[in-house]
Design brief:
Blueprint lengths: L1 H27 L6 H28 L4 H18 L11
Length: about 100
């Protein structure tokens, strides 16, 4: 998951950061006319970052290892492990 966050989310967020820096330089230098072309670029970068994060979250929700699936997978894994290691006792509990 960390790799997906790094590879998928970080680049669009960095682009938003860069476009914010461009806008700050435009304002500091008094290049108000440049804002007309730079603001739409910032908005596109924000939209891209937003869609990327939403897509990643959607993928996590749909994953069989998502919220309920992970607990089920973990429980099955412990069950299989317990079959191979019958001399070890495992107790589980729900919160």
């Amino acid at each position: 998951m960390a790799a997906d966050l790094h590879d998928e989310v970080l680049p669009p967020l960095y682009n938003v950061h860069l476009m914010g820096q461009v806008l700050r330089q435009d304002l500091a230098a008094g290049r108000l006319l440049d804002l007309e072309s730079d603001i739409p670029s910032l908005l596109r970068a924000v939209d891209t970052a937003n869609e990327t994060v939403r897509g990643l979250i959607r993928g996590l929700r749909e994953s069989p290892l998502g919220t309920a699936g992970f607990a089920r997978t973990l429980s099955c894994s412990f069950g299989i492990w317990a079959l191979w290691h019958q001399h070890v006792s495992i107790s589980t509990w729900k919160r």
